[in-house]
Structure formats: structure tokens, C-alpha cells
Amino acid sequence: MQLWRRHLEYVVILGMLLTGGYALVSGLLADLFGFPRFFLHPWAGYACALLVLIHLALNRRRIARYIRLRPLSREKPTPPLAPGQPARLGRRDFLIGALSGLAGFLIGFLLPSSRRPVAGEDLGQQYHRWSKPGGSGLDALRIDWGPRPAPLKAYPQAPRTVLPAPEWSGPPIGNIIAARRSRREYISGTLALEELSVLLYAAQGITEPRWGFRAAPSAGALYPIETYVVVHSVVGLEMGLYHYVVADHALEQIRPGDLRAELVRAGIGQDMLRTAQVCFILTAIFGRTRWRYRERAYRYILLEAGHIGQNLYLAATGLGLGTCAVGAFLDDAVNRLLGIDGEEETALYLFPVGRIGG
Ligand SMILES: Cc1cc2nc3c(=O)[nH]c(=O)nc-3n(C[C@H](O)[C@H](O)[C@H](O)COP(=O)(O)O)c2cc1C
């Protein structure tokens, strides 16, 4: 029984040292180098606390004896130890223990943390710093990403229009880049379905059918951006809201009707949203990219919207049309117009496209 108890004590002490050391080192490393989720860290903490309790319970007699034998003052002679009785901790041991505890606390408190907010930073700066790559990438393989969100969105009940194959015979790219400007004045008229087809192809069309790669780059080829078109005046299409079916180069009509007034209200009164023949709305389904890139996802998604936006600018310019990036809009109102929740999927960017004079 005694032998068994002594073995258990050693096992408990060893376990305490290992789990305590692991929790301490990994906690410090996590804070210093920005490992946000050290896989076993919380469990090491619980295990250590449990082992400490077991250790105290196993040694309760020694502790009680020590407390009873503690000298009250320097002058008072301490009673001699009985054979086999454990040695008591002296004042020096206490002082050293307390000082090292204090030093550990101060080191942990004063060391700069890569994720602690810095005074004067706005949320964007905080996010940018927070999403710098840390060791979190190292343990990514051990983290359950959950089921992968659907890579494509579809409205199975919606009426479909298959678009004509995109035919491109515009000016050289150098001329298009030089001519690109944000155009906010559009003349009345209609857009041909062929023109809309080229614009959609430039935005999100599949350019490499074997792998499904698209016109604009996407981190990990995860394609979080969805494209909607509010149609005001296109030959062969009813007015209304359409969703671009990337895989089939088609449009599905998800809402019929004249949405110009609603769109202008959602766009904080910017009249170009009414006068344009169509308005592209780019949304993001965050889960598609977050699933793999976690805290980097938001950066990638916004960058990708920018790539698509520039393709739209260049395609519109090449077709002799005008467009203008619109970032100023009421998110909730645009999300309502699209019928999306604003959480899993939300509107990011608007591009009215219209005919321009001269
Ligand atoms: C992210 C972003 C958001 C923008 N939002 C708006 C907007 O809401 N309304 C607008 O009239 N122009 C908007 N613009 C267009 C800029 O005003 C325009 O790009 C800038 O004046 C430079 O002109 P340029 O595009 O002709 O070179 C936006 C541009 C960017 C890149």
C-alpha cells in the first residue's frame, strides 16, 4: 500500500511538472507569437489543476504537520524533526518562491503581445495586425474546419437565361487601361445580352474549364464572391434581379420588377444607380474562404472583390461602356434587396454599368 502510494505521488508530481510546464510554455508562446489556438493548452491547464488537488490531498498530513510546526518567531527554538519527518520550508525558500512567482507574473504582463489592442488603433488596424500569420497556421491540420460550405450557389426554381458565348474584339489592353475612368453619367438606351455576357465573363467567367478556374484570381480557388445583376434595360431580359450561374454562364431570375428606386435608396441616393442599364452587386459568402484561411479570410475576400471589380472596369471600358465602383451604400438595404442574410453572405461592392455619350 505504502509503495503504491509513493509511486502514485511520483507519477502525480511528474504529471504536474509536465502539464504545468506545457501550459506555461504554450501559453507564453501563444501570447508572444500569436498562436490563437494552442490545441491542448486548456486541457493541460485542467489536468494540472487536478493533479495539484490530488497532490495536496495525498500530502495533507505532511502539510498539516508543517503548519503546526511553523515557528512563530525567530527567537522561539524550532522543535527537532522526528526521524523520517519531512524538512520544513525556511523563510529564504519562501522569499525565493514568492520573488520568482512575482517575476514570472511581471514578465508575462510586460512582454508585448502581438494581439493586444494598441491605443489609438481603429478596428481595421486591429484586424490587420490580428490577422498577421502566426503559428496558428502550424496547428491548422489538427483543427476541425467543419463541413466545407457549398462552393456554388443556385436558385433551382428560378427561370434561367443561358447567355451567348462571350465574344471579345475590343481594343488592346494598354489602351483600355489608359482609357479607364469612373463614369457616373449614363445616357438612355439598352444593353445587348452579348455585352452583359462579356461583362459577366470578365467578372467571374470560367476560363479554365478543367479546374473551374475563373477570370479573376481567388485565394485557394475557393471563390467566395457571388455576382448579382439588377437589370434595368437589357434586350431579351425582363427587369429584375438576377444571379449569375458561373458553371453554366447563365442568369437565373430571382426577383422580377423595376428595382431602380429601391437600389438608389440603398445606394444613399447615388443617381447613377438609377440611370445605368444594369448594376452588378458583388457579395461574399465568408464561409467558403474562412473554412480554409480562418483569420486571413476577410483580407482575401476583399482583395478578390477588388480583382473582380477591376475586370469589370476594364471590360466595360473595352466595350465602350461606363462603370463606377460604389462602396458607399446601406448594407442592410442592399442585403434586403438581394434577399441575403448579411451574416453568412453580405453585399460588398456595387458596379452600375451604362452607356456613355461621346
Ligand atoms: C473602394 C472604392 C469605393 C468607391 N466608392 C464610390 C462611391 O460610392 N461613389 C462614387 O461615386 N465613386 C466611388 N468610387 C470611385 C472613386 O471615386 C474613383 O475611383 C476615384 O475618384 C478615381 O477616379 P477613377 O476611377 O476615374 O480613376 C469608389 C472607388 C473605390 C476603389
Summed up, what is this model?
The chain is of the alpha+beta class and 358 residues long. The chain has two domains: 2-73 and 87-142, no CATH class; 160-355, NADH Oxidase, CATH 3.40.109.
Q: What does the model show?
A:
With 358 residues, the protein is of the alpha+beta class. The chain folds into 2 domains: 2-73 and 87-142, no CATH class; 160-355, NADH Oxidase (3-Layer(aba) Sandwich), CATH 3.40.109.10. The chain contains 12 helices and 9 strands. The radius of gyration is 33 Å and the shape is elongated. The termini are far apart. Flavin mononucleotide (FMN) binds at residues 181-182, 184, 270, 324-328.
Distance between the termini: 100 Å
Number of helices: 12
CATH architect. name of the largest domain: 3-Layer(aba) Sandwich
- The percent range for helix content is 40-55%
Query: What is the number of strand segments?
Result: 9
Arrangement of strands in the largest sheet = 1-6-5-4-7-9-8
Proportion of residues in β-strands: 5-15%
Radius of gyration over C-alpha positions, nearest whole angstrom = 33 Å
Bound molecules: flavin mononucleotide
SSE succession: HHHHHEHHEEEEEHHEHHEHE
What is the average of the pLDDT values?
84
CATH class of the largest domain: Alpha Beta
* Backbone structural class: alpha+beta
Query: What count of structural domains?
Result: 2
